[in-house]
């Protein structure tokens, strides 16, 4: 069934074809981070039982849950990019013809690639302070709590990686939109 040029079309779940091979990999990786959210719920349930039933709380549950949710949310931005499920003002976008949308998508992807690259640069500056001592030796930033895991340093390194991959994903999207290729 043909739809008018300005009517939005429902599409199946998963990365969009324009996202290419990288989008497919990002889509598959989403399951890992979704599992992390489920794991964090189980950790919290365990902590509630240990704390309020056995009066034996752990020192690791809170920081671990924050870390698992943090990396899932950071990855969520990349996941939305590959699936083209990011926030968009559709008042104008949905009213324009598909061929003009392709031009908009190309321009938006180029702008998003530049923004992602700039945020990746800012993340690199954070990683320099969070992962390296002043003498240049590698040492990840720690929480400073009684348990003192390296979660802050890991999260900052992960953010750098995700933003870099996001910039590449937007370049792939811009290229495929410009070529009109799926």
UniProtKB/TrEMBL annotation:
Signal peptide limits: none
Membrane topology: Multi-pass membrane protein
Subunit structure and binding partners: The complex comprises the extracytoplasmic solute receptor protein and the two transmembrane proteins.
InterPro entries: DctQ (IPR055348), TRAP_DctQ (IPR007387)
Pfam families noted in UniProt: DctQ
Top-level lineage group: Bacteria
Keywords from the named record: Cell inner membrane, Cell membrane, Membrane, Transmembrane, Transmembrane helix, Transport
Family, per entry: Belongs to the TRAP transporter small permease family.
This protein's name: TRAP transporter small permease protein
Compartments it resides in: Cell inner membrane
Organism expressing this protein natively: Oceaniradius stylonematis
Function of the protein: Part of the tripartite ATP-independent periplasmic (TRAP) transport system.
All copies of domain Tripartite ATP-independent periplasmic transporters DctQ component, residue ranges: 41-175
Gene Ontology MF terms: transmembrane transporter activity
């Amino acid at each position: 069934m043909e739809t008018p040029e300005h009517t939005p079309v429902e599409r199946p779940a998963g990365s969009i074809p324009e996202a290419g091979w990288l989008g497919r990999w990002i889509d598959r990786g989403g399951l890992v981070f979704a599992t992390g959210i489920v794991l964090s719920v189980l950790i919290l349930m365990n902590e509630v039982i240990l704390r309020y039933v056995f009066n034996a709380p752990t020192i690791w549950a809170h920081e671990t849950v924050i870390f698992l949710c943090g990396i899932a949310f950071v990855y969520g931005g990349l996941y939305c990019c590959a699936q083209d499920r990011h926030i968009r003002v559709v008042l104008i976008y949905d009213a324009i013809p598909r061929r003009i949308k392709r031009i908009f998508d190309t321009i938006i992807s180029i702008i998003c690639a530049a923004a992602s690259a700039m945020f990746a640069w800012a993340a690199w500056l954070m990683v320099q302070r969070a992962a390296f001592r002043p003498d240049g030796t590698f040492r990840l930033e720690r929480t400073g709590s009684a348990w003192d895991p390296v979660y802050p340093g890991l999260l900052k390194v992960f953010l750098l990686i995700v933003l870099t991959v996001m910039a590449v994903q937007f370049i792939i999207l811009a290229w495929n939109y410009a070529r009109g290729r799926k």
